Amino acid sequence: MTDYDLMCRQLESLSEGVAWDITVLSNAAALIWDSLDDINWAGFYLMKDGKLLLGPFQGKPACTVIEVGKGVCGTAIAEDKTQLVKNVHEFPGHIACDSASNSEIVVPVHAGGAIYGVLDIDSPLFGRFSDEDKTGLESFVHILESMTIIK
Known about the structure:
With 151 residues, the protein is of the alpha+beta class. It has helices at 4-15, 21-35, 71-79, 131-145; strands at 41-48, 51-59, 65-67, 83-85, 103-111, 114-123.
């Protein structure tokens, strides 16, 4: 079981006094990678010119550009809602950046009233992510959203 309260406190500590968003997101991805069991990718896609572009992450090389409305990440943006997918192979239009991934959770990240990007986490296990993970990861993202460096 993941201690999301501890993860959130660690994120706050790692981010204190840091003035660059990429540094914060890099440590956030590493913290998730180190804290969650049974995952094979954790990171961020950031909005640029109306598309999601690969940002800081931990794991194998990944898709570099994702269109809004495409795949789990693009759907999270289009619906502005967390996507908890127990079986990615049943998700219409799923983009398979890593064929080993079987479940996924994607949480939108906002800044200044607009969507900044998404937190994306994949697992090789079916049904890896729960409602508890959803709540914990949304709290984690709220900490990022509260930082003035996220623009």
